[in-house]
Amino acid sequence: IFSDLDGSLIHYPKNHDETQQDDSNKILALPPSATGLRGIISSQTLATCRDLRVKKGVKLVLVTGARTSTLLNRLPYLPKADAYCTEAGGRIFYPTNIDYSDLTYTPLEYSGAIA
Known about the structure:
The chain is 17% helix and 17% strand.
């Protein structure tokens, strides 16, 4: 399943106090984006995405037109996915659990080209 984030899994209510919340469905506020927008995601949405991946074996790809930096800031609040696509398809990321400790060369962090 390919799912858009903004407007699909993440919503932007005008007033956060008006969102429907109860004991079975908690609302989690995400950190603001670079443009200042602050979205919300529900615990039911997170649970549904988890169940699709874990119980049904469905691959989940989260897609957003947002900047990569916005996605990375929001990652702890989003459902775990098999791939993440940002900047309108310009960047695709796959989560890894690679142990680099036994390699002779350890990859260095790359923060982009210097202008």
